[in-house]
Amino acid sequence: MPNPNISSVLKSVTKPGRYVGGEFNRVLKDKNKVKLRFAFCFPDTYEIGMSNLGVRILYDVLNKDPEIWCERAYAPWVDMKREMDKYGLPLRCHESGDPLSDFDIIGFTLQYELCYTTALQMIKSAGIPLLSKDRTDDMPIIIGGGPCAYNAEPLADFFDLFSIGEGEENLLEISHLLIDMKQSGKYTRKDFLHEAAKIEGVYVPSLYEVSYNDDGTIRAYTPIYEDIPTRVRKRIIADMDAAPYPEKFVMPYIETVHDRIVLEVYRGCIRGCRFCQAGMVYRPIREKSPEVLCREAKCLYENTGYDEISLISLSISDYSRLSELTDSLIKWTDDKHVSLSLPSLRIDSFSEELMHKISSVRLGGITFAPEAGTQRLRDVINKNVTEDDLMRAVGIAFRNGKNSVKLYFMNGLPTETDEDIAGIADLAYKVVGEYYKTPKESRGRGVSVTVSVSCFIPKPFTPFQWERQDSLERLVEKQKLLRDKIKDKKITYNWHEAKVSQIEAVFARGDRRLAPALLTAVERGVMFDAWDECFDYDGWLDIFKKCGIDIGYYTTRGFGIDETLPWDIIDCGVTKEYLKRERARAYEGVTTPSCAEHCNGCGANKLGGVNKWCR
Q1: Is residue 100 a contact partner of residue 72, using CB atoms and an 8 Å limit?
Q2: What pLDDT, on the 0 to 100 scale, is given for residue 609?
Q3: Phi and psi for 446 in degrees, rounded to 5?
Q4: Cβ distance 279 to 271 under 8 Å?
Q5: pLDDT tens digits for 458-495?
Q6: Exposure pattern of 386-415 as b/e (b: 16+ CB <10 Å)?
Q7: Dihedral, CA atoms, 501, 503, 504, 507, nearest 10 degrees?
Q8: For residue 99, is the peptide bond before it cis, meaning its omega torsion is within 30 degrees of 0?
Q9: Is the overall model pTM greater than 0.85, yes or no?
C-alpha cells in the first residue's frame, strides 16, 4: 500500500499482518504485459479468506493464464476500515498494492448471506458506485460467485453478473470475452454483459425483468433479449482427475483458520439430507482417484512444508476409495511426520479401521452430526442414521482414547415437537453413558460432550425450500427448553443466536426488493454481520422498517408449493419435481436411500460427469 500514511495506519490497527502482502508463493506479474487484471475479493477477514479452498483454486487457475494477473483482496477489519476512511485510503490488492478501481474485473466469492454488507462495503471502499446501473464503461466489472449465487436476487442491483456453479472454466471464458472485446474496440459495458449472458453458467440480473402478482409473489422472470437463456444452468467440472489444482498455496504471515494442506477428495454428495443446500447444488458426485490425490498431496507438502493434510468433501467417509487413499498417504506421511485429518465423518460409515488411520492426529475431540434428537425427526430430514449408529461410533472413539465428542443438531426443523428437542438431551446423556461402558484401560481420562445446536433455515434448492422458519420467539423457546433439560456438567450446550438465523433467512430466501435495505445498511456503515461483535439485530429491524420490508414475508410465511421462487431463474441440476417428491416423503416420514444404494432420479445427471451413481 504505497501511501505516506500507511505506516502510521498499520501501527494503530490490530494484526497489521493482514494488510502488508508479500507472502511466500504469491503470484507476481508485470501489469504492463498482461491483458486483464482480476481482483479476487473475499468479504471477510484475511485469516478466513486465506483458508478458503475455492479462492486458492481459482487464484491458481487464473494466474496460469499468461494473459491474466489475478490478485487478492480481503475485507479490512473495523479498525483498519476506520483508518482507511480517515485518510481516504482506497481498498487495495495484496500483490501489487494497486487500488481495486484499477482492475478490469473484481470477483467476490459469496460463502454466507451475512457477508453481503461486507462485500458492498469493499466495493464502496474501492470508490466504485454500489449500483451496477451507475457504473460507466471505464469501471471494473463486478462478479459474484460461490454458494450464495444460487439465489443472487438480494444482490441483483449491485453485481454486474454472477458465475453460477464451478468457476474453473467459467471465469476464464468471461475474462477472455472481456479481453477480446476490449482489444477489438467493441467493448461497452452493455454489449459485454449481453455477450457474457450467453456463456453457460453466467447470470446477468439486469437482463431479466421481474414481474409480480397482486399478492407480492413473483409472477415471472423475463429475459430482455431473445438470445439469452430463460434459465441459467450451473457449470460443473465433469472430470475431477483432470481438474486444475494448485501446486502451491500462498503462505500467510499470520495464523489463519486452516493452516494445513487441504485435499479436495470429491464434489457432490451421495446423501439426500432434506435440509442441506450443499448436498443438492454440488451434485452430481465426482470423485478424484487416489493416485491424483496422492500426487497433489506430495506436491503441496514439498511447496509448503505443512505437517497436516486435511481430506475434505461434504462427507469424507463416503468416498468410495477412502481405504485405498489413506493407505497410500500413510506410506509416506508417517515417515514425514505429517498427520491426516478427516473432518465431515458420517456416523454410519465411521469404523475402527478409520479410527486407527487417523490416530496420529492430535488427540482430543471428534465430531458427529445426528442433526435431530429422535428417530422420527431424523427420518423426516432423511438423515438415515440411527441411535445405534451413533452409539457404535462414539464407542469406537472412546475405545481409541478419544474423550471429547461434539454433536451437531438443528432446532426448528419441519414437524419438530418439544419431544424432539428433549431427545437431543437424551442422546447427549446416552453418549456420556457409552463412555462409562468403555473399559477404563481403553478410554481417555474424563468425558466431555458438547451439544451444538443451530437454527433451521429453509434454504433454496432443498426439499424444505418452501417451509416456513419458526418465529424468533419459538426458536428461543426451544433453546430454553433444551437448556433446562441438560443438567450434567459433562455436557456443554452451545446454541446459535436465533436473531442471526432470522436475518440470515431473510437474505437466503430474499428477492430484489431487499436492495434498498442493503443500500441503507451500507450507508450506515454496517459490515461483518457474521461476527457477534458487529451484528446489530435491532439495527436491521430498523432498516427493514424504514424500507417498508416485512421480514415475515421471507421467514415465517413459507412459500407456496407452486409459487415462483426468487431462485427459479437458476437451474442447479436438481429438478423441482424431485424436490417436491422429497418434501412429500418427509411429511410421510419416509426415508430415501443414498445414491450409492439407488439412483433416485434427481436430474443432476443431465449436467455431465455421469458416474456409477447416476442412471
Answers
A1: no
A2: 58
A3: 75, 140
A4: yes
A5: 999 999 999 999 999 999 999 999 999 999 999 999 99
A6: ebebbbbbbbbbbbbebbbbbbebbbbbbe
A7: 160
A8: no
A9: yes
C-alpha separations of 410 from 139, 181, 281, 297, 579 in Å: 44, 49, 20, 35, 20
Q: Which three cell numbers stand for residue 415?
A: 414437524
CB atoms within 10 A of CB 514: 24
Amino acid at the residue 187: Y
Q: CB neighbours (10 Å) of residue 251?
A: 16
H or E element in which residue 8 lies: helix 6-11
CA–CA distances in Å: residue 455 to residues 322, 371, 449, 495: 32, 11, 20, 8
Report the C-alpha gap between 107 and 142 in whole angstroms.
6
| DSSP states along 140-156 | PEEEEESGGGGG-GGGT
Give yes or no for a contact between 85 and 92, defined as CB atoms under 8 angstroms apart. no
**CA distances, 249 to each of 19, 24, 74, 291, 298 (Å):** 18, 9, 16, 20, 13
Contact between 505 and 469 under an 8 Å Cβ cutoff? The reply is yes
List the 261-264 sheet strands across, edge first. Answer: 261-264, 308-312, 339-341
Burial of 31 (0-12, 13-18, 19+ CB in 10 A): middle
Residue 242 corresponds to which cell in the numbers above? 483432470
Cα distance between residue 500 and residue 568, in whole Å = 25
Q: Which three cell numbers stand for residue 93?
A: 490488492
Q: What number is the average pLDDT over the span 178-191?
A: 98
Q: What is Dmax (Cα atoms) for the chain?
A: 77
Q: What is the pLDDT of residues 518-576, one digit of tens each?
A: 999 999 999 999 999 999 999 999 999 999 999 999 999 999 999 999 999 999 999 99
What angle do helix axes 515-523 and 116-125 make, rounded to 10 degrees?
A: 60
**Distinct helix (H) and strand (E) counts, the chain:** 19, 19
Closest CA to 289 of 313, 324, 338, 251: 324
Strands (DSSP E) contained in 288-364 are 308-312, 339-341
Grid coordinates in use for 24? 511466500
| Calpha distance 7→512 (Å, rounded) | 41
The alpha carbon of residue 135 and the mean position of all alpha carbons in its chain are separated, in whole angstroms, by 29
Please, what's the b/e burial string for 328-341 (b: 16 or more CB within 10 A of its CB; e: otherwise)? Answer: bbeeebeeeebbbb
List all residues 6 or more positions away from 392 whose beta carbon is below 8 Å from its beta carbon.
350
Bridge partners of 24?
251
Can you tell me which residue has the cell 453460477? 164
298 burial via Cβ count (<10 Å: 0-12, 13-18, 19+): middle
In the chain the domains, ranked by start, together with CATH numbers, are 6-233 (3.40.50.280), 260-496+575-604 (3.80.30.20)
- pLDDT tens by residue, 357-402: 665 444 457 889 999 999 999 999 999 999 999 999 999 999 988 8
3-class SS of residue 342: coil
The residue to which cell 457404535 is assigned? 392
The residues facing 410 across adjacent strands are: 454
Q: Per residue in 545-562, is it b (16+ CB within 10 Å) or e — as a string?
A: eebebebebbbbebbeee
